[in-house]
Structure formats: structure tokens, C-alpha cells
Design brief:
Layout: H1 8-15, H2 24-49
């Protein structure tokens, strides 16, 4: 029985994924989201406290 094999470029892509392996930008984006959510929570708390 013949089994089809992937070509060399496909095998290289499977062995070395070109996806986002650097966590720098995602970590930066997560920290910005945390800071803005904390800021909005503090702002909402101050707004409710002033009522």
C-alpha cells in the first residue's frame, strides 16, 4: 500500500512552525489590558462613590 508523503517544504514547516513563538508582544498586550481594566474599575468605583 502506498502512503503519500508530504513534500520537503511541508515537512520543514511541520518541524519548524513559523507561528508566533515570541511571547514579548502578547505579554505587553496583556499587561496593557490589565492596566486599562484596572483604571476603568477605579474610575467606575470613584464615579459610584461620588453619587
Amino acid at each position: 500500500m502506498n502512503h503519500p508523503q508530504a513534500s520537503a517544504p511541508l515537512q520543514g514547516a511541520a518541524l519548524n512552525p513559523t507561528g508566533p513563538t515570541n511571547l514579548g508582544p502578547s505579554l505587553l498586550r496583556a499587561s496593557i489590558l490589565i492596566v486599562t481594566s484596572l483604571g476603568s474599575f477605579i474610575g467606575a468605583s470613584l464615579l459610584l462613590a461620588s453619587l
